[in-house]
Amino acid sequence: MADQYRFGDYQRESTATHDGISFDDLIDLRPKLEKDAEGNVIPYQAPPVRLTADETFRLLRPYVSVRFMEQIKAVVPLGVYLALFQILFLQQVVEDSWVITGGLFAVIAGLMFFMEGLKLGLMPFGTIIGRNLPRNSPLPVVLFVTLLLGIGVTFAEPAIGALQTAGQNLSVERAPYLYAVLNFWSTELVLVVGLSVGLAAVIGTLRFLYSWSLKPLIYATLAPLLSLTVYASADPEMQKVIGLAWDCGAVTTGPVTVPLVLALGIGIAAAAGKGDSGLSGFGIVTLASLFPIIGVFLLALYVSSTSTPAEIIETARQAAAAAGTVEPAWFERSPGAEIVLGVRAILPLVLFLFLVLKFIVKEELENPVEILYGIGLTVVGMCIFNLGLTYGLSKLGASAGEMVPSAFMQIPGAPESPIYVYFVGLTLALAFAWFLGFGSTIAEPALNALGITTENLTNGVFKKKTLISAVSIGVGFGIAIGLSKLIFDLPLVWLLVPGYLLTVVLTYFSTEEFVNIAWDSAGVTTGPITVPLVLAMGLGFGNATDAVEGFGILCMASIGPILTVMITGLWSQYQARALASAETQVPLATTEQESKAIL
Amino acid sequence: MSDRKITYLTDVELLTVVVQRDQGEAVLKAARDVGATTGAIGYYAKGFGVRERLGLLGLAVETEKDVISMLISSEQRDVVLDQIYRAAKLDTPGMGYIYVTPLEKVATYIPDSLMARLDKHEASVG
Q: Could you tell me the pTM of the whole model?
């Protein structure tokens, strides 16, 4: 026993037990090198590591739980909010709550698999193609691939399935064209939307290449768009398609489209030596939200020119009669339908990417096993997500939408409605919509990323937090206004045309950076959870209030942030200018005083 | 600092932690909790250790790594190491590793007030 010990030694001994092993003793880690006849070392092949069941579990647990928690954070608060609102304010028990819970769980699990699969299976394609294609092929080929890619990614977008679900609950008599577009023409609808996204990607890419300003592109897109809207509003039947057309814009820009199309676009710009402008990457999202609207309008016009409402109603009646007699095949029923839908969504995109890689880029994939696993995960995830969409998100959104009107008006489903005095109930319903939009946006991870980019672009003038709150407030007001459109049966054209004219004015006065940020922020907000939920809520709400159709909420949620972000941008510019002029004045004043003091 | 005298710090060790991407924050928090983030730096790296040999299970290990290294005094060493080892769950397969390297000397700015206190302390001890 020594007289004194170092405190550090004492602490080490008292806090944990430590053992030392010499690294040299870990025999199996030390390769036994063999040499061939000429004395060269034969490359050592490390034996595969085998894990025990316990080790496997401990290896996988953090991997799964991190990804699972990510989706839980996105889904659970929204679900709880909707359920609590119904229970506390509307005194309604959520119907089929177990089915909905299971469905939401499927959404969480499905998105978890889907996002991981996207990262492992599809993104490597995007990166390799984006890096190599523009260098090896002439521009027209590259642009053609971009166009086709736009179609592929649109089919693979999880939220697109929500459109199909939305069509089933429509009344064919009241909105025949809308019914026809969503039911008989649903594949063509997605195709048209995809084509528009592809075109948007092409033009967005050309914009990178030739450094076009976004402003004229916006004006040039809005002009036909708004005229089509006004034209459609003149026709009593076409009028009902406006909401769908504008909502399609919000559906397109999701977790598949944005990264894949951007990877290609940025690759093209980089190959041309234009990759370093801070704004590359912006704009495609904007155009990809605007072009599909035109596409859907044109499709609806085509449908209206080929068939009359009476014909559509007749066809729908026959189809309904046939459905009653013939048992639908397994792939037309749930859950078979969802699985077929999931496979059909992913495989064409994968096949397309693979063919481009093999025959145009002529590159090999680095890690085929990993990519195969990723693609498998994507498909499985998409199928599970589609199931969750049907049983969870759509049901929850629809039941919330159907119940919210009971706060201020009499609806058949709720015996005690109206629960509140008209004005109180109305305020409550609008507040509900506002917080739904605000809450679901503020947690969106894509928005966080955009916030960071914005802060860098503006040298910190426009803070990440400012952008996130501006966008969230915009979406909140957008959804509230969209809901009041349904309540008061406002014609959408009166909201859209003045709203977008205002954005044109603001765009004219804003700087290029803010125009890019503001218009892109609209596309970023509508993710795979918000879109189906809000769509279903609108339709349920529309059913309950006896509105003809429940579309139009999503597009209001797109215009809201464009306005708020540009207004905030102009305000911060104004402030920065005021600050700058104040700074130049202050030193002048002090030198004046100094000179007076000296005198 | 006109006399251009450099005061060295001795008994410094460099603690380096390699963890999967996005786990770096947890490491820093653990270090902060035991009062050790002096000279902490973090960088991104790519790992190639055991992933290939694990087969499909290797997918659970991110190739992208956060590397955090910081200066610690040799007295602090074991406390900090223990804390980080636990917080970063380094006893889990594939999670990462931690190591400590003794440094010969370190020099940086030492505030004058601190210097004065150190001198006084030195004088009183011996």
A: 0.78
Residue B18 has pLDDT above 90, yes or no: yes
- Say if residues A293 and A558 touch (Cβ distance below 8 Å): no
Tokens of A166: 């939305």
| Chain B residues with CB within 8 Å of chain A CB | 22, 50, 52-57, 59-61, 74-75, 77-79, 82, 89, 92-95
- Whole-angstrom CA distances from A536 to A156, A335, A549, B87 are 20, 19, 11, 43
Q: Are A253 and A523 in contact (CB under 8 A)?
A: yes
Give which of A495, A489, A469 is closest to A554, Cα–Cα. Answer: A495
Q: Taking CB atoms and an 8 Å limit, are B54 and A48 in contact across chains?
A: yes
- pLDDT value at residue B100: 93
In angstroms, the Cα distances linking A86 to A11, A406, A516 are 57, 10, 39
**Residues 6 or more apart from A322 whose CB is under 8 A from it?**
none
Q: Exposed, middle or buried: residue B7 (CB in 10 Å: 0-12, 13-18, 19+)?
A: exposed
Beta bridge partners, B15, equal B70, B100
Q: How many degrees, rounded to 5, is the angle at CA A576 between CA A571 and CA A580?
A: 150
> A329, A311, A280: which is closest to A179 by C-alpha?
A311
Average pLDDT of every residue of chain B: 86
d(CA A12, CA A26): 25
Q: Which of A538, A543, A521 is nearest to A433 (CA)?
A: A538
Each residue's pLDDT tens digit, A144-196: 888 988 888 888 887 777 777 777 767 777 778 888 888 888 888 888 999 99
A6 min Cα distance to partner chain B (Å): 9
**Structural Rg of chain B based on CA atoms:** 18
Residue range A7-11: average pLDDT?
71
| DSSP state at residue A359 | I
In chain A, domain spans: 66-327+336-574
What is the domain class of B11-125 according to CATH? alpha beta
Give the pLDDT confidence of A203-250 residue by residue, as tens digits.
988 887 787 888 899 999 999 999 999 988 888 878 888 888 888 888
Interface test with A, best of B21, B46, B54 (most A CBs within 10 A): B54
